[in-house]
Amino acid sequence: MILSLFSRKAKANEAITTALYDVIVAAARQPYLYSDIDVPDSPLGRYEMVSLHVFLFMRRIKGRTPALKMIGQEVTDEFFRDVDHSLRELGIGDSGIPKRMKKLARMFYGRVESYDKALQTNDLPALAAALARNVRPDTSGWTGASALAGYTIEAALFLENQPDDDIARGQLAFPDAGTQALQNEERGAK
């Protein structure tokens, strides 16, 4: 009897985690990010976009309820399981996975630190520089960096307006990157 209660709770948490992570991945795969601002549509480019959206989610729930803290840990765990799975699909052998996972985890937490610092100080140029350094290290003067930084700021604000209770139930939304860019262009033209 008691074990069935834990099993139901675990399944409910898994469903919430899956729902949230699916929204995060869908936001990271918005065509605008790849076609219009030139994020590389490659395993590393997709990793960068999922990392960015996981960061935005984690930033949104930071310091909130214990339930959200637990959900945040589960979403982060799901992200790293997804990265592990992707590495295996790319043909990385079992012996190479731990080393690469450590490197990718360090990369992720380094990004979290630089993006969070730029958002806390509302420093758009620093955020754009960090995004350019991480998303397009192969290209100097990447013009998509400022657009991605603008989207990141808009997404952070958008997420702040979503109730904790909705997120705890697995309901989350990100703004449409293309629509945000068009609105920013229209504001700049006025």
From TrEMBL:
Residues forming the Ubiquinol-cytochrome c chaperone domain are 36-174
Give the source's domain of life in one word.
Bacteria
Instruction: Cite the InterPro entries for this sequence.
Output: Ubiq_cyt_c_chap, Ubiqinol_cyt_c_chaperone_CPB3, Ubq_cyt-c_CBP3-rel
Q: Give the matching PANTHER family.
A: UBIQUINOL-CYTOCHROME C REDUCTASE COMPLEX ASSEMBLY FACTOR 1 FAMILY MEMBER, UBIQUINOL-CYTOCHROME-C REDUCTASE COMPLEX ASSEMBLY FACTOR 1
Protein family per UniProt: Belongs to the UPF0174 family.
What is the designated name of this protein?
Ubiquinol-cytochrome C chaperone
